[in-house]
Amino acid sequence: MFSLGESSLSEFDFLVLIYSNISYFTS
Questions:
Q1: What is the DSSP letter of 4?
Q2: Global confidence as pTM
Q3: Can you say how many angstroms the Cα of residue 4 is from the centroid of all Cα atoms in its chain?
């Protein structure tokens, strides 16, 4: 995954973004 170093939640936020987009397009 991505490692930005400073932001430890950046990876989680990225996954949430993708999941939100999938949920949006499939609903």
A1: -
A2: 0.46
A3: 13
